[in-house]
C-alpha cells in the first residue's frame, strides 16, 4: 500500500510539473530539472508520465535522463560535494586533494556513503580557475581548497 | 552623504569569503551607526586580491584586499570609509597595474557597477549601443558588426557579422538568438564574470542581434555549474522586462524581443552549438552533422544565431562607438579586444582584457607574475581542455587566432592554465583522452571509441613496455580523431595530446637506467 501511494504521489506531482512547463519550446530539460528539484532525483515512475505528457516514448525520455550527468536515478546524500577535476585545479594540486577527500570519506567518485550523509561527485570546471582548487558543497562555492580545508569538509559533512 | 562600499558578489569572490565579509561589514556599519551602503558588484577580475573591498572617495575608488573576515572591523576603525591607509590598502583601484594595463571594452562596467541596476548601467554607457541600433536598418547593424571584425569568442573565431547576415537573409516563421553560456572549458570564466558582473550587456547584445536579424526570441543556455550566474541572469531578465529593454516594444520601438534563461544539465559537449540546440529542444546533447547550418536550420529547425556570451557582450560597445573604434584594436585578422583568463598555478590570476597581439610570455611571466608555487613554468594550456600545451620555447606566440593555429594550437575561449615543473605531461595527455571519453556524445566512432583507446595507450606508455610502438599508436589515433570526428570534442582532443607529446617527449619515455638507479 505504502509504495503504491508514493508512486501515485510522484505521478501526480510530475503530471502537474509537465502541465505547467509543457508550453515552453523544448520543455523536457526544464521539466526534468523541476522533477529532480522536487524529488531529489528523477524517479523511474516519473518517466511514463513525462513521456505521456510530451507525446514521447518512455525510451526517449530515459535516453535524455541518462545522457546528462546532472540527473540522478537515486536520491543523493544529505550533503553533496562536487570537486573540480579539470586542468586549472589539477595545476594547483587538485588531484591529491581529491584523493585525500575520497580517502577520508571512504568513498569513490559518484558514491553516496552508506549512512546517506554525503555524496561525492567530480565536476569539470566551476569557473573558479583563478582561485583553484575549487569545490561546490551543497551549492556553496569554495576556492583555494587546501588539505586543512579538505579535512574540515570531511568532518563537517559527517557531523 | 551615504558612503558606498563595494564588495563583489560574484562566485569567484564568494568562493574566497566575500559573503562573510559583506555580512560582517553590514553588522559593523549598523553597530557604528554610520551612513554607508554596501553594493555587491561584480569582480574586477583580480582574483588574488579577492575579496577586494572598494570604497568611493573624492579621489576615486580606493581598494583593499584580500580582505578576510577578521580584517573588517579593523578596516573600519582605521578609516575605510575615507579611503585611509591600511596594510591591505591597494590605493586607487584604477591605478592597480594589472587593471591599468588593460583595455576594457567588453568588461568596461564589470566590477564597477551594481550588476542589477539599470540606472547604473545607463550611467556607465549602457543601452547607448541598443539606442543606436534602433535608429538604423538591420542591414546596417549587420554591416557594423561585420566591419568591426568581431569573431566568435567561444573558440571557433567565425566572423559574427557573417553569421548574422545569413540569419537576416534566411526565411522562417520565427528566428532565434541563442546565447551559448555553456562555458565548460577549464581555465575560462569570462562568461561567468560578465553574466554575474554586468548581465545587462549580454541582454543588450542579444536584443541588438535580434533586431539585426529579425529574431524576436532569445535563449541563454547556461550551464548548471554556475548557480550564481543563473540567479543573476534570471533576475536581470525580469528587470529588463520591467524597463522595456525586453518585451513587445523594445525601448518604445516597433521591435519586439524577449528571452529566457535555460539551464544545462552537466554535459560538456552541449557547448558545441548543434549539441546545444538538441539539448535546448529537449533531446540528448548529440552533435548534428552540418550542413544544414544553425543559421538556416537551428533551434526547432528555424534560422538561429548561436553566439558565445562574450561575442554578444562585445556588440553593444561596437554599436555605441562604431565598427572602426573596435577594429582599431588588435592585429592581423584578430580585431578588437580579447578577455584573457589567467588561471591555474599563477601568482596573479584573473581576467585581463586587452587588444589582440600580446604574447603568451608577456601574459604568463609579466602579467600573471609567474607561478603561485614559485617554481619554473613548465607548460601553459591555452584554450581549455581541447587546447594545446605550450612550452616556454613558444612563449613569443602572439595572442591571435592565426598565430596560435600556426603553432598547432588554438586560442579557444582565451583561457590560459599555467603548470609548474611538477606537471607530468603524460598524465595530462591521458586526462585529455579520459575527459573526452567521459564527455563524448557517442555519435561518431573516432571520438567515442578513440578516447577510450587513448586512455589505454597512455597507460601502456606509463607501463613502459613497447614504448615507441605505443607512441606511434597514440600519434596514429590522434590523426584519426582529428580528421574523423564530427565536432571539436573528438577533433581537438589531439591538440593537448600531441602538443604534450611533441614538446615534452621525455615525459613519455621511461627514465634512462642510469637516472633511475640514482
Characterization of this structure:
The complex is a heterodimer of chains A (159) and B (518). With 159 residues, chain A is α+β, with helices and mostly antiparallel strands. Chain A has 2 domains: 2-67; 79-158, Glutaredoxin (3-Layer(aba) Sandwich). Chain A is built from 7 helices and 4 strands; from the N terminus they run H-H-H-H-E-H-H-E-E-E-H. Chain A has helices at 2-21, 28-39, 46-54, 58-67, 87-90, 94-105, 147-158; strands at 79-84, 118-123, 135-137, 140-142. Chain A has a 4-stranded mixed sheet, with helices on one face. In chain A, strand 3 (135-137) and strand 4 (140-142) form a beta hairpin. In chain A, helix 1 (2-21) packs antiparallel against helix 2 (28-39). The radius of gyration of chain A is 18 Å and the shape is elongated. By secondary structure, chain B is of the alpha/beta class. Chain B has 4 domains: 3-97, Glutaredoxin; 118-327, NADH-ubiquinone oxidoreductase 51kDa subunit (Rossmann fold, 3-Layer(aba) Sandwich), CATH 3.40.50; 330-420, Ubiquitin-like (UB roll), CATH 3.10.20.600; 425-508, NADH-ubiquinone oxidoreductase 51kDa subunit, iron-sulphur binding domain (de novo design (two linked rop proteins)). Chain B is 42% helix and 15% strand. Chain B has 22 helices and 16 strands. Chain B has helices spanning 11-15, 18-32, 72-77, 97-100, 118-123, 128-134, 138-148, 160-169, 190-197, 199-213, 227-242, 273-280, 309-321, 323-327, 360-367, 401-406, 425-439, 445-463, 467-484, 488-492, 494-503, 513-517, and strands spanning 3-6, 36-39, 53-57, 60-64, 89-92, 176-181, 217-222, 258-263, 304-308, 330-331, 334-335, 337-344, 350-355, 377-382, 389-390, 415-420. In chain B, the strands form 4 sheets. In chain B, strands 2-1-3-4-5 form a 5-stranded mixed sheet, with helices on one face. In chain B, helix 9 (190-197) packs across helix 10 and helix 19 runs antiparallel to helix 21 (494-503). Classes of the chains: A alpha+beta (159), B alpha/beta (518). At the A-B interface, helix 2, helix 4 and helix 5 of A face helix 1, strand 8, strand 12, strand 16 and helix 17 of B.
Amino acid at each position: 500500500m505504502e509504495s503504491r501511494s508514493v508512486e501515485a504521489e510522484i505521478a501526480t506531482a510530475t503530471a502537474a510539473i509537465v502541465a505547467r512547463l509543457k508550453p515552453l519550446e523544448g520543455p523536457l530539460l526544464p521539466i526534468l530539472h523541476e522533477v529532480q528539484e522536487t524529488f531529489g532525483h528523477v524517479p523511474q515512475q516519473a518517466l511514463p508520465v513525462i513521456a505521456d505528457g510530451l507525446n514521447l516514448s518512455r525510451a526517449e525520455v530515459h535516453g535524455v535522463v541518462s545522457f546528462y550527468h546532472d540527473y540522478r536515478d537515486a536520491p543523493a546524500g544529505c550533503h553533496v560535494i562536487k570537486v573540480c577535476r579539470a586542468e586549472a585545479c589539477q595545476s594547483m594540486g587538485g588531484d591529491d586533494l581529491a584523493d585525500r577527500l575520497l580517502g577520508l570519506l571512504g568513498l569513490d567518485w559518484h558514491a553516496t556513503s552508506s549512512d546517506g550523509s554525503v555524496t561525492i561527485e567530480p565536476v569539470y570546471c566551476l569557473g573558479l580557475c583563478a582561485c583553484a582548487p575549487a569545490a561546490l558543497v551543497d551549492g556553496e562555492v569554495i576556492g583555494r581548497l587546501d588539505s586543512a580545508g579538505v579535512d574540515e569538509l570531511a568532518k563537517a559533512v559527517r557531523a | 552623504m551615504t558612503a558606498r562600499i563595494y564588495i563583489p558578489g560574484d562566485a569567484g569572490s564568494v568562493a574566497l569569503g566575500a559573503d562573510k565579509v559583506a555580512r560582517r561589514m553590514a553588522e559593523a556599519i549598523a553597530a557604528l551607526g554610520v551612513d554607508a551602503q554596501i553594493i555587491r558588484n561584480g569582480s574586477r577580475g583580480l582574483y588574488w586580491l579577492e575579496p577586494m573591498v572598494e570604497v568611493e572617495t573624492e579621489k576615486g575608488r580606493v581598494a583593499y584586499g584580500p580582505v578576510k573576515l577578521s580584517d573588517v572591523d579593523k578596516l573600519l576603525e582605521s578609516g575605510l570609509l575615507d579611503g585611509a591607509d591600511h596594510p591591505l590598502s591597494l590605493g586607487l583601484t584604477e591605478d592597480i597595474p594589472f587593471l591599468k594595463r588593460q583595455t576594457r571594452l567588453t568588461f568596461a562596467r564589470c566590477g564597477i557597477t551594481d550588476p542589477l541596476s539599470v540606472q547604473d548601467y545607463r550611467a556607465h554607457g549602457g543601452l547607448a549601443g541598443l539606442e543606436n541600433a534602433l535608429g538604423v536598418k538591420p542591414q546596417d547593424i549587420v554591416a557594423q558588426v561585420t566591419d568591426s571584425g568581431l569573431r566568435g569568442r567561444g573558440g571557433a573565431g567565425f566572423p559574427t557579422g557573417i553569421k548574422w547576415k545569413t540569419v537576416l537573409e534566411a526565411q522562417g516563421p520565427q528566428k532565434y538568438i541563442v546565447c551559448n553560456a555553456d562555458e565548460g572549458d577549464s581555465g575560462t570564466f569570462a562568461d561567468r564574470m560578465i553574466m554575474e558582473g554586468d548581465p545587462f550587456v549580454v541582454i543588450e547584445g542579444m536584443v541588438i542581434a535580434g533586431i539585426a536579424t529579425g529574431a524576436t526570441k532569445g535563449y541563454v543556455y547556461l550551464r548548471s555549474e554556475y548557480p550564481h550566474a543563473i540567479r543573476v541572469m534570471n533576475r536581470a531578465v525580469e528587470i529588463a522586462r520591467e524597463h522595456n529593454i525586453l518585451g513587445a516594444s523594445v525601448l518604445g520601438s516597433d521591435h519586439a524581443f524577449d528571452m529566457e534563461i535555460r539551464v544545462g544539465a552537466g554535459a560538456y559537449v552541449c557547448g558545441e552549438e548543434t549539441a546545444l540546440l538538441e539539448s535546448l529542444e529537449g533531446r540528448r546533447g548529440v552533435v548534428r552533422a552540418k550542413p544544414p547550418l544553425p543559421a538556416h536550420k537551428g533551434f526547432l529547425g528555424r534560422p538561429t544565431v548561436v553566439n558565445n556570451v562574450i561575442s554578444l557582450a562585445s556588440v553593444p560597445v561596437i554599436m555605441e562607438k562604431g565598427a572602426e573604434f573596435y577594429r582599431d584594436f588588435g592585429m592581423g585578422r584578430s580585431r578588437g579586444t580579447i578577455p584573457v583568463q589567467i588561471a591555474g598555478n599563477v601568482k596573479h590570476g584573473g581576467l585581463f582584457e586587452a587588444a589582440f597581439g600580446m604574447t603568451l610570455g608577456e601574459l604568463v611571466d609579466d602579467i600573471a607574475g609567474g607561478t603561485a608555487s614559485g617554481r619554473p613554468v613548465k607548460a601553459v594550456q591555452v584554450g581549455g581542455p581541447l587546447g594545446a600545451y605550450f612550452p616556454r620555447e613558444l612563449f613569443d606566440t602572439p595572442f591571435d587566432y592565426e598565430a596560435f593555429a600556426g603553432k598547432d594550437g588554438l586560442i579557444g575561449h582565451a583561457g590560459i592554465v599555467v603548470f609548474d615543473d611538477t606537471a607530468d605531461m603524460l598524465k595530462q595527455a591521458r586526462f585529455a583522452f579520459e575527459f573526452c571519453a567521459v564527455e563524448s556524445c557517442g555519435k561518431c566512432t573516432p571520438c567515442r571509441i578513440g578516447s577510450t583507446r587513448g586512455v589505454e595507450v597512455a597507460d601502456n606508455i606509463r607501463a613502459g613496455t613497447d614504448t615507441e610502438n605505443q607512441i606511434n599508436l597514440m600519434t596514429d589515433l590522434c590523426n584519426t580523431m582529428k580528421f574523423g570526428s564530427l565536432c571539436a570534442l573528438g577533433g581537438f582532443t589531439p591538440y593537448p595530446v600531441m602538443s604534450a607529446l611533441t614538446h615534452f617527449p621525455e615525459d613519455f619515455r621511461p627514465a634512462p637506467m642510469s637516472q633511475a638507479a640514482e
